[in-house]
Amino acid sequence: MEKIIQFQQVTWRRNSREILKDINWEVKEGEHWCILGLNGSGKTSLLNIVTGYNYPTSGKVSVLGNVFGKTNIPELRKRIGFVSSSLDQFSQNLHKEITENIVVSGKFASIGLYEEVSEEDWVQADQLLESLRLSHLKGKSYRSLSQGEQQKVLIARALMSKPEILILDEPCTGLDVLAREEVLQWINDVNERDCHLLYVTHHIEEIVDVISHVLLICDGEIVAGGPKKEVLTDERLSETYKIPVTVRWEDNRPWLTVPKAKVF
């Protein structure tokens, strides 16, 4: 089985501080992973290494068969779709665009269209919008969309380049329950996209059926990683969240409970 991502004893330091410590992690073909951890646990740093924006201080990294130090990182990034709150820094430019332009821009990894768009590109964007039930948003400005609709458009944009890895970094943050469940329902269809999902969240109830594996990270170290039902135990989650918790499963979906008497 092909290794989609491989970290071997990866450490990353910033200003002499170890942010990630001896990370050993593999994503194999056909696996979809959720990365769980508190703020500051190292989740974003891990993603930044996968996408080549951070380079490991020590250790070896391979993504889609490309060994870091022996590959063209900008070319590798074209094979990775990324939806993150970091796109908020471009909100002023996004608000000027209409829905279909934002989706098509995903092919060029740009905010705004600065290159020639082919008829095939527009057709692909239309097909994406239709498959994600977003056709009714065509012609509408990004500014006029609800927060949930904006997030769905950004996911469509990430899919425009037909990525082999799709990274969704807390895509449900700020969404109401209805918008969140709609996004999660779409995520469940990721198998039809022929890509590998890395889903980052604080909330285990967002771990839907399609997610097969979970990586728990705390203070820059891996607590556990593997098939989700083996990893999501009371003991491991309590260690990850630094507070006693219990997990229950309903319809193959995990839910977290914090016993009130044990919070402090």
From TrEMBL:
<dbReference type="GO" id="GO:0005524">
    <property type="term" value="F:ATP binding"/>
</dbReference>
<keyword id="KW-0067">ATP-binding</keyword>
<dbReference type="InterPro" id="IPR003593">
    <property type="entry name" value="AAA+_ATPase"/>
</dbReference>
<keyword id="KW-0547">Nucleotide-binding</keyword>
<dbReference type="Pfam" id="PF00005">
    <property type="entry name" value="ABC_tran"/>
</dbReference>
<dbReference type="InterPro" id="IPR017871">
    <property type="entry name" value="ABC_transporter-like_CS"/>
</dbReference>
<feature type="domain" description="ABC transporter">
    <location>
        <begin position="5"/>
        <end position="244"/>
    </location>
</feature>
<dbReference type="InterPro" id="IPR027417">
    <property type="entry name" value="P-loop_NTPase"/>
</dbReference>
<protein>
    <submittedName>
        <fullName>ABC transporter ATP-binding protein</fullName>
    </submittedName>
</protein>
<dbReference type="InterPro" id="IPR003439">
    <property type="entry name" value="ABC_transporter-like_ATP-bd"/>
</dbReference>
